[in-house]
Specification:
Blueprint: H1 2-7, E1 11-17, H2 43-46, E2 57-67, E3 75-84, H3 98-132, H4 136-156, H5 167-193, H6 196-203, H7 206-216, H8 224-243, H9 249-272, H10 280-302, H11 305-319, H12 322-347, H13 350-372, H14 378-397
Antiparallel strand pairs: 1-3, 2-3
Helix pairs in contact: 3-12, 3-13, 4-5, 4-10, 4-12, 5-9, 5-10, 6-9, 6-13, 7-9, 8-14, 10-12, 13-14
Length: 399
């Protein structure tokens, strides 16, 4: 309160009345120099002082005292010390009301629920497409192309505001896009070879890669609890891999490469995007477009249009017209779940985001096992639970 008063430009004014309060009683001690006392003979001068009607008058202290003139009786006076606030310097006070806090929590909860639901739907349709059309490079390309087209239409129709970017923005985004492209393709390759649940169990080991890369390549130090939390992550992933009934080396290596690539993506994002005023939705849209440009020539070189045409005809012959809707669904939901995740990151801390990402993997693993009737041994389930628990402990240790 004192700091607030001292920051204002104010004018001192003194009022005197003949109220009979206890003598020498101070109701409020002022924190600045005492105001001059005006006696009865000067009372009329008070009303001639310049007081503006649009400025509030604040009482700073009240004091009682007595005085006597020669040959006159003693009078009891009350001095009211006041100051006039200057409204030309408004205070910038941001107070978050309880209703606003509750609304923010509800908003974050909706983001999380939408993020998890979209991710589950994407993984289901993505696995269906890869079972009938085992061309992960084209499937990855279509996901990025669909998202890029959706955002271009949104910008053109003014549904979303187009971001203001420059050459420096795209320059800093390029290494992020390279890492994102590698991680996206590697994860798709993994899911084309093994069960969705197994891919996500291995991908739950991403925190271990993050700590190891940051420690040995960037020289960062971490407290002991962070390193201890890596033990259940690594142990749980290893136990699941050893007991996986449909273990595939290519699928396992794809998930591991995806972990490493996404760690570098996060590092490049933190280094390159500081100070950039692009929203989470538009940032991911730009990332998708640049990744699409990087991925397309490699997809053509790795698989090629001839293989795609033959595989497409075979898939349509086996599945029917529904296959086209599967491809469209996996492409649309891939973009939507990533877009919502980046929008969530705008609203929450990285720690909360990592916890949400852990819970997302649980929902994907459980739903994929139920939908695809994936056989799971008790030891395999135990390994998955240990790995996910380690990821949660890692999130707490990083706090």
């Amino acid at each position: 309160m004192n700091a607030m008063i001292s920051s204002l430009n104010y004018t001192h004014t003194t009022f005197i009345s003949s109220d009979f309060l206890p003598r020498k009683t101070s109701l409020l001690k002022p924190q600045f120099s005492p105001l001059p006392i005006i006696h009865n003979s000067h009372r009329n001068q008070i009303f001639n002082s310049s007081l503006s009607s649009d400025k509030p008058l604040h009482i700073s202290s009240l004091e009682n005292f007595t005085f006597s003139k020669k040959n006159q009786s003693r009078d009891s006076l009350t001095v009211c010390n006041a100051y006039e606030a200057d409204r030309s310097r408004p205070l910038d006070i941001n107070i978050e009301l309880p209703d606003e806090q509750a609304a923010q929590k509800i908003k974050i909860g909706v983001y999380f629920a939408t993020w998890w639901a979209l991710n589950v739907v994407f993984n289901i349709y993505n696995k269906k497409v890869l079972n009938a059309f085992p061309y992960p490079w084209l499937t990855s390309t279509l996901s990025l192309a669909c998202g890029s087209l959706m955002m271009l239409i949104s910008w053109a129709t003014k549904v979303a505001d187009a971001p203001k970017t420059d050459f420096e923005f795209w320059k800093t985004l390029f290494p992020v896009a390279v890492a994102h492209t590698i991680g996206h393709v590697a994860a798709t390759v993994s899911m084309s070879k093994v069960a969705v649940s197994f891919t996500h169990i291995i991908k739950s080991g991403e925190p271990a890669f993050s700590v190891l890369v940051s420690r040995f390549l960037l020289g960062q130090t971490f407290p002991l609890p962070v390193f201890l939390s890596l033990l259940p992550i690594i142990g749980g992933c290893a136990l699941s891999a050893l007991t996986e009934l449909n273990f595939n080396k290519t699928g396992f290596m794809g998930a591991m490469i995806s972990n490493l690539a996404f760690v570098f993506r996060n590092i490049f994002s933190k280094k390159g995007m500081n100070g950039k005023s692009v929203s989470g939705m538009n940032y991911y849209a730009c990332l998708s477009m640049l990744s699409l440009l990087i991925l397309t020539p490699f997809a053509i070189a790795m698989e090629g249009p001839q293989m795609w045409a033959a595989g497409w005809q075979n898939a349509v012959a086996q599945i029917g017209p529904n296959f086209v809707w599967w491809v469209a669904a996996q492409s649309i939901f891939y973009h939507l779940y990533n877009q919502v995740s980046y929008m969530s990151l705008d609203q929450i801390s990285p720690l909360t985001f990592s916890i949400g990402n852990t819970m997302k993997r649980i929902s994907v693993i459980v739903s994929s096992i139920i939908i695809f009737h994936t056989p799971v041994q008790p030891v395999n389930a135990l390994g998955a639970a240990i790995a996910i628990l380690g990821t949660f402990l890692y999130s707490q240790a990083k706090q």
